[in-house]
């Protein structure tokens, strides 16, 4: 309500400035008994006008900010309710409704509803109040001004809603088509292999074309009606200034109204059109969002939903389900009413192990889902220890009933997150809380979301009869080993990259393994296979450039990319190795050309080197030209391409066939002379942030697994072991290679 007085002042003061200050009959103006000069009075009114505009603007900023916060909280609450209702849906619902359609309803379709939720009360009150304030000002200036301002409002109030109802019908059809399109896109993505192998992709493309065509013509009709409605609205709105100029000008000429009052009335009507348009927009949006609300809520209220009480307010203690499992004349039907199982009656003694034999796999699946309450019996009841399964809280079922599926669903995240998922049924707020979490919890409470946050304690070791999370981890590892999945997890882990800043403990543990690796290899007589990456030693297991930089690339680098880097050639010139590396490059190109010939670059052994065929042909021509004309006759671009070839190859890849100059093998790493390098080279010599990485080098002479661990002094330890192809499967009489 504080906004409306400021709005009235912004309308009244311009009239006072024109009539009472600028158009004053005398040089002295008396204001509340105080005489003021005409200039002083003008500045006083202008200052009050500026303060009124400032106060009006700041209040609107505050109101709009609060509306935005309310909109986001209501949208957050609405989306949270939709997601939580999914937990109560019957399983057959998901078989008939695509995931893409559900995602579209929760995200894109509900997005515009947030603005309407914030504007539901404030927008009509604010805009109607502003409109009433402006109309009051117009009537105070002249009755005819006010009458002219409202003359065409009834026509707009009747015409615009009538046209909007027709648009709403088309919007409903558009939403339905968008949902069907989302479902077809989801089916296409899931069934792409089948469409390719069956050759039905063309038919599927025609189906999508049909759906897009229907959507196009619906939207085209919406555009025609929508912009015609806007044209009519704008035309009617512009008719009112016609009356102001004609009737108002006539009244000014007759002397019935002052010129300042006419100017103020024109400015006021200009301000009047804005809230009136906002009210019309609110009306159209309200009906559109009401229709959208009905479409969404109808889809999120399917038949057979579980009750709220089975999911809300979990019990403080989870009781144990002990006793017999009794099926008492249990029948189950699908959504179409077709019987799945009928009149099942049997008892599974408590504490025993039972095997249920069924004719079809579908019957076994139905019985399993009945025991986990994924399917609710249409007739009869299931009891466990005398307790009705239909009345148990979901927390009790999730905690006390285990279900092992042959093909479990893996959620996005780590393997640990998925393995520990069954232990995270109830979260607990910690004793101490950071201020950021307190604010997040407060906003979650205001929005009606879960007050237990993701950062809270979700695993309770006491529920498992353990003392700490370390005991839980140890138990988890025992399960992994019992499943026989430990070696597979280790193999996958060795192929991953980690960032030291994200997992400092893991990085430190990997560094601490250096000594243990050396001891294990020495004990197994395999120390000779280890090649330490030391400051003063040239490591033959890694490429030349990695030896010079004492670093490893964070991603694969091709010969062309390395040659085009603006710091590559200056680096080699700074350490005065251009001639030596060019000699190695010519020897390598000759060896590869003699081995594979002119047309053998598509050989699998050549492709293992990672050399592009086109780049190698260009390098061969550059090498031949350098032999005849010398390096001085080669451009910098060609020289960089020639030198990049040996820099990406390790001596062990080409063996003893290529002589590596002693100056290269005895050169201290470039990092020791970093301060003397040009600035263009610094991008090559920056420290790597990866504490550990795994590189699989498949060479044409040998296949060697190289594991590197970055030390605190930026040293790398490499050790290699024979090709996995020489190992035998588990259970073989031959000795398997040791694991480090």
What can you tell me about this protein's structure?
With 740 residues, the chain is α+β, with helices and mostly antiparallel strands. Among the domains are: 90-299, ABC transporter transmembrane region fold (Up-down Bundle); 308-402, 3-Layer(aba) Sandwich (Rossmann fold); 543-686, no CATH class. Helices cover 57% and strands 8% of the residues. A four-stranded antiparallel β-sheet has the order 4-3-5-6, with helices on one face. A four-stranded antiparallel β-sheet has the order 7-10-9-8. It is extended, with a radius of gyration of 39 Å. It starts with a helix and ends in a 19-residue tail after the last strand. Residues 685-740 have low confidence and may be disordered.
């Amino acid at each position: 309500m504080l906004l409306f007085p400021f709005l009235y002042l912004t309308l009244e003061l311009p009239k006072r400035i024109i009539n009472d200050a600028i158009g004053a009959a005398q040089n002295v103006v008396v204001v509340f008994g105080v005489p003021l000069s005409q200039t002083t009075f003008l500045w006083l009114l202008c200052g009050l006008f500026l303060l009124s505009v400032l106060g009006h603007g700041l209040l609107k900023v505050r109101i709009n900010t609060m509306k935005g916060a309310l909109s986001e909280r209501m949208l957050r609450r609405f989306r949270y309710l939709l997601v939580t209702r999914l937990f109560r849906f019957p399983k057959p619902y998901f078989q008939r409704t695509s995931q893409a359609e559900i995602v579209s309803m929760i995200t894109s379709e509900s997005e515009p509803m947030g603005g309407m939720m914030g504007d539901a009360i404030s927008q009509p009150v604010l805009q109607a109040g502003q409109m009433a304030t402006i109309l009051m000002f117009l009537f105070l200036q002249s009755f005819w001004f006010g009458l002219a301002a409202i003359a065409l409002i009834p026509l707009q109030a009747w015409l615009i809603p009538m046209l909007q109802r027709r648009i709403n019908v088309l919007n409903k059809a558009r939403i339905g088509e968008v949902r069907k399109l989302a479902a077809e896109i989801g089916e296409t993505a899931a069934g792409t292999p089948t469409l390719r192998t069956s050759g039905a992709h063309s038919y599927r493309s025609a189906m999508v074309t049909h759906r897009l065509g229907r959507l196009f013509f619906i939207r085209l009709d919406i555009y025609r009606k929508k912009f015609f409605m806007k044209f009519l609205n704008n035309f009617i709105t512009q008719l009112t200034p016609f009356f102001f100029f004609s009737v108002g000008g006539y009244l000014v000429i007759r002397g019935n109204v002052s010129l300042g009052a006419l100017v103020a009335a024109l400015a006021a009507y200009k301000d009047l059109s804005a809230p009136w348009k906002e009210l019309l927009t609110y009306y159209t949006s309200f009906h559109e969002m009401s229709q959208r609300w009905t479409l969404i809520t109808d889809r999120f209220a399917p038949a057979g939903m579980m009750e709220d009480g089975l999911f809300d307010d979990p019990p403080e203690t989870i009781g144990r389900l002990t006793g017999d499992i009794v099926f008492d004349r249990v029948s189950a039907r699908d959504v179409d009413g077709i019987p799945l199982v009928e009149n099942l009656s049997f008892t599974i003694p408590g504490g025993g192990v039972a095997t249920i034999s069924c004719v079809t796999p579908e019957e076994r699946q139905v019985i399993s889902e009945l025991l986990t309450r994924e399917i609710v019996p249409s007739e009869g009841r299931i009891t466990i220890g005398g307790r009705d399964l239909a009345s148990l809280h979901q927390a009790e079922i999730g905690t006390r009933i285990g279900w092992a599926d042959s093909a479990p669903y893996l959620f996005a995240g780590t393997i640990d997150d998925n393995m520990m998922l069954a232990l995270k049924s109830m979260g607990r707020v910690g004793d101490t809380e950071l201020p950021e979490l307190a604010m997040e919890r407060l906003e979650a409470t205001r929005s009606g979301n879960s007050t237990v946050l993701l950062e809270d304690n979700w695993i309770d070791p006491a529920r498992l009869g353990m003392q700490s999370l370390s005991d839980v981890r140890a138990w988890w590892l025992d399960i992994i080993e019992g499943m026989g999945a430990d070696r597979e997890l280790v193999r996958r882990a060795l192929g991953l990259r980690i960032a030291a800043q994200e997992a400092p403990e893991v990085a430190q543990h990997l560094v601490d393994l250096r000594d243990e690796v050396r001891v294990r290899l020495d004990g197994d007589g395999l120390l000779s296979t280890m090649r330490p990456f030391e400051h003063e030693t040239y490591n033959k297991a890694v490429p030349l450039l990695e030896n010079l930089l004492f670093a490893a690339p964070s991603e694969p680098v091709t010969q062309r990319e390395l040659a085009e880097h603006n710091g590559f050639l200056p680096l080699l010139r700074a350490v005065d190795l251009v001639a030596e590396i060019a000699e190695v490059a010519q020897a390598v190109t000759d060896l590869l050309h003699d081995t594979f010939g002119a047309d053998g670059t598509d050989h699998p052994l050549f492709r293992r080197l990672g050399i592009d065929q086109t780049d190698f042909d260009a390098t061969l021509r550059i090498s031949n030209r350098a032999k005849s004309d010398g390096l001085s006759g080669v451009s910098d671009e060609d020289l960089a391409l020639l030198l990049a070839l040996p820099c990406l190859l390790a001596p062990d890849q080409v063996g003893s066939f290529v002589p590596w100059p002693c100056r290269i093998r005895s050169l201290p790493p470039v990092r020791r002379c970093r301060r003397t390098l040009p600035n263009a080279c610094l991008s090559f010599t920056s420290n790597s942030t990866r504490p550990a990485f795994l590189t699989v080098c498949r060479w044409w002479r040998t296949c060697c697994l190289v594991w590197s661990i970055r030390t605190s002094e930026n040293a790398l330890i490499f050790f290699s072991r024979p090709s996995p192809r020489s190992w035998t499967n588990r259970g073989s009489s031959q000795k398997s290679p040791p694991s480090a």
